[in-house]
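Morning run. Coffee first, then this:
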Amino acid sequence: MEYYAIVLLKFIIGFAVVISHLNFTGKTQLSQMTPVDFIGNFVLGGIIGGVIYSDAIPMHQYVLVLFIGVFLISALNWVCKHVWFFRTFTIGEPIPIIKNGKFLMENILRRRNKIDIINVASQLHSQGIHSFQEIRYAQIEPSGSLSVVCEGSKMPSIIIMKDGRPRTSELQGIDKDEEWLDAKLENLNIQRTDVFIGEFWDHKLTFVLQDGQVKRDVE
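And here it is:
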């Protein structure tokens, strides 16, 4: 009876640690999780499953290993959020596949992107879009979903700056560079470090500052 009580206690502790971690990070839905979260949750599940039926590992070591796992997941997510190279590597970036009605074959055929154009067509049909001929712009999001702009619709906004850092790939997507961005910041008397996000939409540039102020570039 004592054995089953210990197993139940290990179950409860494992569930409590994992659920507390998910609630603390605000990632209680699958759509909110990053690849780091998925892999980390498998690791935590392995720790829990591997220890529950074993008496070789004391309870305090079991709890300590769980907390180490949670700490590593949180640390990796922090790095991915604040270091752009790691974010690109672990989470990925949007992949444009159609621009101005033209297929971007370099992105589509690049081996590491592994784009299945038949699957893309199926996603279009599920969104009520009957043909590629209707599309002005399309990109595959890091989550695998498809964002589409049809002819006659406005292009989606692009975040060209985050936490004071220019997003070079996004700037290239609108045929701009950092010199252009710096000139806009100077015109508005804004320092890079003051910027929370910079958004480009409908040929207009908006900066949201770290203090919540919004400044718009007027041309």
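The longest strand covers residues 195-201. Good start to the day.
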